[in-house]
Amino acid sequence: MNPKQTDRRRFLKNSAALAGLAVGASAGALPVAAEPALEHVDELHQYGERSHFVESVRVGSINNPERRLPNEPRDFGLKTPLQDSAGIITPSSLHYIVSHGYEPPDINPRDHRLLIHGMVDRPLILSLEDIQRLPSVSRFHFIECHGNSTTGGLGGPVRISPDATVQDTHGSTSCSQWTGVPLATILKEAGVQKSATWIIAEGADQNKHSKSIPLQKAMDDALVAYAQNGEPVRPEQGYPLRLVIPGWQGINNVKWLRRIDLVDEPYMGMMEISRYPRLMPDGKSRWFEFEMGPKSVITRPSGGQRLATQGFYEITGLAWSGGGAIRRVEVSTDGGKTWKDARIHEPIASKSHTRFSIAWNWNGEETMLQSRCTDDKGVVQPSLAEVAKHWGTDIDFFRKSTLIVSDLNAIQPWKVNQDGSVKNAIF
């Protein structure tokens, strides 16, 4: 038996005995709890659990509308309940998931290795213990699926439904504090050769998911993470090692990281030739678009919620950008006719969720709530009409298209009805 566990059990037993003596001294002797109950209490408290009154969970379904082959594995995706969020951190247990058809591999961390090879002077094979000995950093970063808040194609009917919640429309993004070693530290130790311009990151999942990433980004702020929100990265998020590529499409954040190959060109893997080129209204594809644009969404009041009565409410939500930190969030309570600056809550981190809020008195009339953000590059979140104009199409394209309209960061409107009900008003 673990000596620490033995000491903890002894402490709990002694504490219970002392409590029994104290009660007995004033109200008559009461029996001390039997040892089996103490054993149960010990196990129950070894890893905490939330109150049974808290019911917020991820939602999703088994679905793979992108299937190309009859035997291609089914996919499942589970979305974060943003409507219940507070602050900027997503609990690890509520972080969104896109499975790409496979359950998480069961990896013994003692056996896991990370191989660094290719165009390097000194190929490396690193254990988890080796990586944990290196200088570490902890950073707040969001991860977002490229299909988050799309209006057509993948899950489109759900997202454009008037009854859609913010979990339905924007739930494929989450934010964590990631702890690990900058990838640049490891690559410098390996000695990157001048001819190398890309890395190929590969996971240990059954599908051996791989992604081509420019070396410049890898040397900038990429992170080999072994911890999430103060504990080891969870299996569904890539245990024991996950590559975090801040601000870029979620597919680049390779889970169960096992290999990094230094090369002089992208390898055009499956996720780069058949899944993640962005399909445009003109029928052409745009390859290697990585960075997620500035986006914000009001989480309260939002779709599916109801205002109980007229009067004061705090409007609150989240903003984020793959281009850097959020510098401004504006909120409109009259359908975009006027805008007011919201208060941005600390901490404000680069490529992280940022909480905002603004005071509002509802007069009981029908209205429209919207938010828009600006990042530190000066890029402003666009309306859907502005996105359509930029793409050379009209708004109906987003409603009717069967394509996966990815990387959509348009302003999300919520309609407040006279009865207090809040509906999705994207169209």
Task: Summarize the topology.
Blueprint: H1 3-27, H2 35-46, E1 59-62, E2 76-79, E3 97-98, E4 113-118, E5 124-127, H3 128-132, E6 137-144, H4 156-159, H5 166-170, E7 173-182, H6 183-190, E8 198-203, E9 210-214, H7 215-220, E10 223-228, E11 231-232, E12 242-244, E13 257-263, H8 270-275, E14 278-279, E15 285-286, E16 295-300, E17 311-320, E18 326-332, E19 340-341, E20 343-344, E21 354-362, E22 367-375, H9 384-391, H10 396-400, E23 414-416, E24 422-424
Parallel strand pairs: 4-13
Antiparallel strand pairs: 1-2, 2-3, 4-5, 6-7, 7-10, 8-9, 8-13, 10-11, 10-12, 14-15, 16-17, 17-21, 18-19, 18-22, 20-21, 22-23, 23-24
Compact summary:
The chain is of the alpha+beta class. Helices cover 20% and strands 29% of the residues. The protein is globular, with a radius of gyration of 25 Å.
- In the predicted model, the low-confidence regions spanning at least 5 consecutive residues are 1-30
How confident overall, as mean pLDDT? 85
Rg value: 25 Å
DSSP strand tally: 24
The dominant shape is globular
Largest sheet: 5 strands, mixed
> Which secondary-structure class do the elements indicate?
alpha+beta
Portion in helices = 10-25%
Q: How would you describe the oligomerization state of the chains in this entry? A: single chain
- N-to-C terminal Cα separation, in Å? 62 Å
Q: Number of DSSP helices?
A: 10
β-strand amount: 25-35%
* Strand ordering within the main sheet: 5-4-13-8-9
